[in-house]
TrEMBL record, chain A:
GO molecular function, one term: formate dehydrogenase (NAD+) activity
Cofactor: heme
Record field: compositional bias (Basic and acidic residues): 209-225
Keyword Heme attributed: yes
Enzyme Commission identifier(s): 1.17.1.9
Main subcellular location: membrane
Protein name stated in the entry: Formate dehydrogenase subunit gamma
Enzyme class, UniProt record, top EC level: oxidoreductase
Location of region: Disordered: 205-241
Keywords linked to the UniProt accession: Cell membrane, Electron transport, Heme, Iron, Membrane, Metal-binding, Oxidoreductase, Transmembrane, Transmembrane helix, Transport
Domain Cytochrome b561 bacterial/Ni-hydrogenase span(s) in chain numbering: 11-188
Sequence similarity: Belongs to the formate dehydrogenase gamma subunit family.
Protein topology in the membrane: Multi-pass membrane protein
From TrEMBL, chain B:
Organism: Kushneria aurantia
Compartment(s): Cell membrane
Cofactor(s) it depends on: [4Fe-4S] cluster
Gene: fdxH
Classification via CDD domains: FDH-N
Record keyword 4Fe-4S present: yes
The keyword Acetylation belongs to this UniProt entry's keyword annotation: no
GO MF term set: formate dehydrogenase (NAD+) activity
Protein origin, superkingdom: Bacteria
Name of the protein in question: Formate dehydrogenase iron-sulfur subunit
Region (Disordered): 287-326
Principal location class: membrane
Pfam families: Fer4_11, Fer4_4, Form-deh_trans
Gene3D superfamilies: 3.30.70.20, Single helix bin (1.20.5.480)
Length: 241, 326
């Protein structure tokens, strides 16, 4: 049954989608250029940014862009990423999750604990990368810092980058693994079935809104008043973006 | 880079560099600080031979000029006035003023922190004769060499964003000449030869100084970096810090070793394993297929996709009515 024939609901507004893919591009470029300096076997990756010197020049600037985009998304999504009771139960059943036995999982909200861990790992690592990255940044900033601090920053930057890249590998795989997820970030919408199956509490919450219940893109535009009902802070429906 | 066939270590390179012509003696420059008169002939010779012209600076009221190493000043004389134990007879406990002058520049470490840290393949090389050379052609200007060096030597040029430092005149040494500073020094304070010979000379100089009454003269050939190919004879070897902050026990910082050591291959491996784990999980367990309405909602009217009748259908979806009654 194709998506067109299932009821769908909005998961990410156009602003959030643009933000996400901006970050995705920035992150890939950062990982490629960063890994080139990280380990000799990866040095060839620096060619993807136009050669090793360009990679060195561009990496920190792209990092700043990534950081700014991340702040926006983090502020908008953090309340959906607070741990709740069922999350612990869900984590205990991680074996079922990995084996695709979803039926007995406790109901969870907009994000599952795995997604929340990705979120918090990035909330920690990206600001750390910015701070340490600025300390290492030549020729602009490194000169203002004592060399022992630059050494420490370099070590921490490498560790934080490792954490961030490992996290993003998991994140990308999860999107491939859980069918129906990628469309949430490309087209903005998921099927009602997907939402109820993977994020039941979020689904119930959204079903309070007529335009989400209507299940079709564009339905909400019939009623401009609906926009007002969607103004809860951090909401990432049509208003976010 | 003068000799490409006797490279014993090469930055960011995991396989051996070409070193078939490595049957050469290790060289060393010996700087006998006790004989230096601070004339800066070596500084001038360095500019001259290497065609370097640093900006003309300002007088800061001290002898140091320029005040620090730069991409165009690969060696500088550092002047320091300190109170030290007096050396004349029966001077027990007396202090006297000493004017300590040290020619600062790259030490050409046997275990160079700059080379350890550099991420650009071949930007830093160590020749079999012990000289550590920057091949600035491969330099990307990241400054990791500055981070790695225990002596704070390399400097990034404002002109081209490449890193520079003393080459120990690798170009001259390769054709059997001594470095330019050695040639220019009027007091023979700087000497050049095989490391073995230079250590022997240093030994002799230390004996002389001892006879002159110095309590702790010594050779500065710090073993923390495996020894260096630029060595000092110091009158006060127990306190190298007196000589404008020469480090007492320099070694590659543990922070740098932790950054550049085993952690990197381990982290790289874990990243690879994570990616493969995902791949094999997909191959063995398969994806979480997208749930159908029937699976999730059963007979729930609202999601019986064919019977959607909310009175708002504007006709765009009519086509689905027939096909969907399954
Ligand atoms: C957030 C702002 C960031 C800034 C300002 C920044 C800055 C820097 C700087 C200055 C360097 C040294 C090389 C160079 O000069 O280009 C560097 C290296 C590196 N960066 Fe970043 N970066 C940032 C974010 C990131 C992110 C998000 C990642 C991960 C995808 C990353 C991964 C790396 C890696 C792996 C290295 C090499 C570290 C090493 O040599 O051990 N950076 N970064
Ligand atoms: S003194 Fe510094 S720049 Fe010179 S070889 Fe040693 S680590 Fe490298
Ligand atoms: S600045 Fe140049 S020589 Fe120094 S570590 Fe970076 S690439 Fe190597």
């Amino acid at each position: 049954m194709s998506i067109r024939k299932q009821k769908t609901m909005q998961r990410y507004g156009p602003g959030t989608r643009a933000n996400h893919w901006g970050m995705a591009i920035a992150f890939i470029l950062l990982a490629l250029s960063g890994l080139a300096f990280f380990q000799p076997q990866f040095f060839f990756l620096s060619n993807t940014l136009g050669g090793p010197v360009w990679a060195r020049v561009l990496h920190p600037f792209i990092g700043v862009v990534l950081f700014m985009l991340f702040v926006i998304i983090a502020v908008r999504q953090y309340r959906h990423n607070l741990l709740m009771e069922n999350d612990v139960k869900w984590m205990k059943q991680i074996g079922d999750v990995l084996n695709n036995r979803d039926d007995n999982l406790p109901p969870i909200g907009k994000y599952n604990p795995g997604q929340k861990m990705v979120f918090w790992a990035l909330v920690v690592s990206i600001p750390v990368l910015l701070l340490t990255g600025v300390i290492m940044w030549r020729p602009w900033f490194a000169g203002f810092f004592p060399i022992p601090l630059i050494r420490f920053a370099s070590l921490v930057h490498a560790l934080a980058a490792f954490v961030a890249i490992a996290t993003i590998i998991v994140h990308i795989y999860a999107a491939i693994w859980v069918k129906g997820s990628i469309r949430a970030m490309t087209r903005g919408r998921v099927t009602h079935a997907w939402a109820k199956h993977h994020h039941p509490l979020w689904y119930e919450e959204e079903m309070e809104k007529p335009e989400q219940r209507a299940g079709e893109e564009g339905k909400e535009q019939h009623d401009s008043q609906l926009n007002r009902s969607m103004e809860s802070p951090g909401h990432d429906g049509r208003t976010s973006g | 880079m003068v000799n490409s066939q006797n490279i014993v270590a090469r930055s960011a390179t995991t396989l051996p560099a070409p070193h078939v012509r490595d049957d050469v003696v290790e060289v060393a420059k010996l700087i006998d600080v006790s004989r230096c008169i601070g004339c800066k002939a070596c500084q001038v010779a360095c500019m001259e031979w290497n065609d370097l012209r640093d900006d003309v600076g300002e007088c800061h009221g001290v002898y140091d000029n320029p005040m620090d190493l730069s991409a165009e000043s690969w060696t500088v004389m550092r002047f320091n006035e300190v109170d030290v134990d007096a050396v004349h007879d029966n001077a027990e406990g007396d202090k006297e003023l000493a004017w300590l002058i040290r020619k600062d520049g790259c030490m050409h470490c046997a275990e160079p922190g700059c080379l350890e840290a550099c991420p650009a393949p071949g930007a830093i090389v160590k020749y079999a004769n012990g000289i550590v050379d920057f091949d600035s052609n491969n330099c990307i200007g990241c400054g990791y060499c500055i981070t790695g060096c225990p002596f704070d030597i390399p400097r990034i040029s404002e002109k081209d964003s490449k890193s520079y430092k003393c080459t120990l005149c690798s170009d001259r040494v390769a054709v059997g000449l001594e470095p330019a500073c050695v040639k220019a020094c009027p007091t023979n304070c700087i000497e050049f030869g095989s490391k073995k010979d230079m250590l022997a000379r240093a030994e002799k100089r230390v004996n002389d100084l001892q006879q002159r009454g110095y309590a702790h003269p010594g050779v500065y050939d710090p073993q923390g970096v495996g020894g260096t190919h630029v060595m000092y004879v110091l009158s006060h070897a127990d306190q190298p810090g007196l000589y404008s902050g020469l480090p007492k026990d320099p070694r590659i910082s543990p922070m740098v070793s932790a950054w550049k050591g085993v952690t990197k291959p381990i982290m790289s491996a874990i990243l690879g394993i994570t990616a493969f784990a995902g791949f094999f999980h997909f191959i063995t367990k398969g994806p979480k297929e997208e749930p159908t309405d029937e699976e999730v909602f059963g007979d729930d009217e609202d999601h019986n996709s064919g019977d959607r009748d909310d009175g708002q259908d504007d006709g765009r979806h009519q086509h689905s009515h027939e096909e969907d009654r399954s």
